[in-house]
Amino acid sequence: MGNDLNQAQARINALLDDNSFVELQSLVVARNTDFNLDAKKEPSDGVIIGHGLVDGTLVFVFSQNAEVLGGTIGEMHAKKILSLYDMALKVGAPVIGFIDCGGVRLQESFDALESLGAVIERAADVKGVIPQLICVAGQCGGGLSVLPAIADFTFMVDGASLFVNSPDTITGNDKDTSSAKFQFEEAGTVDMYGSLEEVVASMRQVISMIPNDIVEATDDLNRASEGLDSKVSDAAAIATEIADNREFIELKAGYAKEMVTGLIKLDGVTIGVVGNREVDGEAYLSAIGCEKAADFVELCDMYEIPVLSITNVAAFKSCTCQEKRLPRTLAQMSQRFVDASIPKINLITKQAYGSAYVLMNSKSLGADLVYAFENASVGAMEASKAARILSDNGTDAAAIEKDYAQLQDSALTAAAHGHIDRIVSTADARKYIIAGFEMFF
Prior knowledge:
Carboxyl transferase, globular, propionyl-CoA carboxylase activity, 14 helices, 2-enoyl-CoA Hydratase, Chain A, domain 1, 8-stranded mixed sheet
């Protein structure tokens, strides 16, 4: 069947535990005979399907084979993928797909189009019921590009292409908009990319976090968090330090870097992390950052994964393009936090100012618990800015700034008013966050 079949099988073998793959429906062939298609019949109809194990976890896998009929989607090709989804849904196991596809099969015309639609419908229908991981390993264009976007976790191999319109058809385009780098950094479609080996390692990491089974922790529950005082500007650094075995899987790390999203385990329980990262010394909310956070909180809520928000925010990003989009994306993020029925804890690390703080999972937005580090600043705005507004003529600004910092710009004051549940030391952060989540189990 050609070397690429071996490549399609090799992708499966690279992902799964040794000797665990069981192929299904290997003898399926295309039914259509138009345009001499019968002369090209080959078993598998361009896609390998089956089940296997990842670190002992049952998963269902399909891998498209570009050597057989270009890996194009036709009626039987799609039926194999649909049957895989049916089996996975029946047992509640993840579906993993390797995309390497030349598009819809032209010889099957409308039947092929309907087959593509059926696969997309099934993926959309089971979203939030069984986890879906899609890896773009070759070509993925046109309407098929919806499939990796629907997936809960999306991966891409260097050299693969993901696009709606081919880059050479876009007027004035001076970059490869189909590349893994573009999709990771600028489009925000891809969670992780790299070589096949790197991508498969990342996929196995994610699968270890889902389904959300509670496992016996191998890290000390009461381990002191080290060096958090120097990490308060980056939620990823804090998440890494407090996580079991200091393992943090950051998702979409190249996109909207001012917003951090990812997965950790705390005392064996999978926790979703969403938080702020300072960019060039500024702590702000942006439109794409809010959109990224909203999608992630929705994902956690669908799979009943508790959320830890790590807050360090002082303002909204300011420019014309932000004014066009921020109201909608802020509303989107706020709605996800409010609607989420999962346990939600907020940790204020450095600063929490104004309505930007309110929208980052504050108590008023529905956080079950709010913690803050001892030196965190919490208030309507920074004391220096407040002083300029409150002073009559500027002569008393210094005195007002000092008083405002003590009275209104303080985590202690916020705690006294009931907006913060506990002031915690950086060393005790892991212990108290675990204790907070354990109340809900």
